[in-house]
Amino acid sequence: MALTQWQTGGRKVVVSHKPEAITISFTEQELVSYDLAGRYLGSYDHGTNIRRGLDNTYQQRWRVVDGRKYHPRQRVLSEQEAEEHVEDMRIRVRDLLKDKAAVDSHPATAAVLERIWEYSFRKLMASAGTFTRLYGHIPILPPDQYRALVVQMTDGCTYNKCTFCTLYRDKIFRVRTLEDFRRHVSEVLEFIGEGLSYRTSLFLGDANAIAVRTARLLELVEILNGFPVLQPLVKKGGMHAFLDIYTGNKKSVDELRLLKEQGLRRVSLGIESGSAALLEFVHKPGSRADVIDVVRNLKAAGLSVVTIFMVGLGGHDFRAQHLSDSVSLAQELSLSRGDIVYLSHFSPGTNAPYLPIASEAGVRAMTADEIDAETRRWKQVLGEVFGGTGVKVAPYSFQRFIY
Predict the structure, then answer these.
(1) Interatomic CA distance for residues 298 and 6, integer angstroms
(2) Peptide bond before 155: cis, by omega within 30 degrees of 0?
(3) How far apart are CA 325 and CA 329, in angstroms?
(4) Where are the domains of the chain?
(5) Fewest beta carbons less than 10 Å away: which of 60, 179, 214, 294?
(6) pTM of the predicted model as reported, rounded to 2 decimal places
(7) Left if phi > 0, otherwise alpha if psi is -120 to 50, otherwise beta: which for 366?
């Protein structure tokens, strides 16, 4: 890492040039980060964060203090607000390049600053258009994979009928042909350019890539292994993917071991609940026994596992059963160090089929504050279940996801 001081307007500015990104600290409470291609990543300004997605969405986050409680808040910046912010940062970066002594002393850092200056808001908009052409959109990733490089072996979800989920309603599930996938990966690498260094792993998209027939899946992985530039990424962070329960139980331990040998490291399972009654209510396939079998097979193959439970699903009517059955299921899973239990904050989209079904059934929804409190309860109980095992239990809100 190169940590250097630059002069601008009579003030000293600290520039941290790391192998993965560059961060400019104008003050201790004001900084901005870019990838090495020059794309804006995000900024921090006296308690407020702004993060940019590759689709050129800008999400602003802050916390409101209420007594001893902190309430997270967020909003998406308008295009005008985003442009003003990006251009203001660019001008400040340009001013750093006036420090000729620093430019001459640190040419590699200066070259990145030049790329940042060249990456105007309009250029970022054009880059977002390329991203949309390559991906459509990426609805969600597990939180530990927010910095992964996504390569879409598949599009959509194999099931796509859970009433609470609208993430893939606009996609028809398909497996890419070998030729199409090779072209996709090549175009993704061209698009991401030097920003690849910011990525920490590979995520095999979309919603259920591991459900693909193993022989075809290995052919697709072989294509990935044919790109030398990706090998350091696989070695560093491995490959990751989602897997659903109802097809996951068709994968043998031997098949999973073959995938591990090719670089697969961790698999994420959307379990949602241990309650059979609640899963039936939301049309989620897969039984409790299936979950136990899938996790057992994944662990036997030497893979790490992410299990995701959806707190607030089923409202007050299922509240007690949802927690008790989910905890008892978690106790039966062979989770160990390196595995993660995520507690997802339930917040259905406005057009989710769940809403009219729940309304007709008289299910009383939980408020956001109630779900926050319930999440803390789940975290405490599951923290006691997995205490000392090395299993991480953490809340997350997919509404805060931005890629």
Answers:
(1) 50
(2) no
(3) 6
(4) 2-125, 137-400
(5) 179
(6) 0.94
(7) beta
Helix (H) or strand (E) holding 113: helix 107-118
Instruction: Decide if 238 contacts 259 (C-beta within 8 A).
Output: no
| β-strand partners of 395 | 343
Question: Residue 1: is its pLDDT beyond 70?
Answer: no
Average pLDDT, whole number, for the chain?
94
- CA 354, CA 360: separation in Å to the nearest integer? 10
Region class of 34: left (phi > 0), else alpha (psi between -120 and 50), else beta: beta
| pLDDT for the residue numbered 70 | 76
The number of beta carbons lying within 10 Å of the beta carbon of residue 261 is: 12
CATH superfamily, domain 137-400, is: Aldolase class I (3.20.20.70)
Q: Which helix (H) or strand (E) holds 7?
A: strand 2-8
Q: Are 5 and 20 in contact (CB under 8 A)?
A: no
Quick: pLDDT tens for 327-362: 999 999 999 999 999 999 999 888 999 999 999 999
Is the separation of the CB atoms in 49 and 63 below 8 Å?
no
DSSP letters spanning 168-236: TTT---EEPPHHHHHHHHHHHHHHHGGGGGG--SEEEETTTGGGS-HHHHHHHHHHHHT-GGGHHHHHH
